[in-house]
Amino acid sequence: MNWLIVSDSGCNILNFESNSLTFKSIPLTIMVDNKEYIDDENINPTELMDAVYNYDGKTSSACPSPEAFRAAFDGFDNIIVFTLTSGLSGSYNSAMLAKKTELEKHPEKNIEIIDSLSAGPSITCMIYHTKRLIEQFGDFDQVVSKLHSDFNNFHLSFILDRLDNFVKNGRVSKLVAATVGVLGIRIVGCASKEGTLSVTHKARNFNIAINKLISDMEENGYKGGEVIISHFLNLEGCKKIKEIITSKYPDSKISIMDNRGLCSYYAEKGGILVGYSSL
Predict the structure, then answer these.
(1) For the chain, which terminal residue's Cβ has fewer other Cβ atoms within 10 angstroms, N or C?
(2) Can you give the pTM of this predicted structure?
(3) 162-178 pLDDT tens trace
(4) Rounded Cα gap, residues 21 and 75, in angstroms
């Protein structure tokens, strides 16, 4: 039985090498001044964000259609889909409709749709974990059961320099955003259990923000597991976080990657997202 993992572009990976499965990424779309930016392998996040910052009007993101998900299922028997949190996107609902349509035609298929309640590198952590479970068990029901039992061990934390697009899209209040970027203040936060943006700290400089972020990680049970750090135009900040985590947890496995379009749109310039496992 062949395996497929699907994610929308709320996850930053486009592909990865594996002999045990196929991975597909389904793009979301960002709308800026009546222009569509499709979040696929051709998107330039810097060009996207320049357009966002140069436009005074409201911008928005749109989830993939149900058919975009369903078409990805063709030719596969065991399918696991991860979507951007339903707190930010309708992607989960689109994937569920795709599952319903596919199973009406092919009831023999195994399809699981998982609302990540998260974004970016946290979804990447889930996908890498799923790959390992497939290689370990090879049975769909076992993989899905273990994945759900492990689900609450995957987390997302972040440090943001600005919240313009969250405010424009009604994700946070103007009051919360008012002090961000003033006198070097950063927002430290996490994805809540409901999959929404939760602010945990306001830090007066980046070093304090890092310490608050790592403290939040430890409160969530982090003790040296996998960490994936993603960013938009803040590689040095990522390296600093990696250095501090490694100094405390020498055996931790930490990787750094660029944000794609959707995560760049929400994290904005200088924003850092940290996905990690407390397994």
Answers:
(1) N
(2) 0.93
(3) 767 666 665 555 555 55
(4) 12
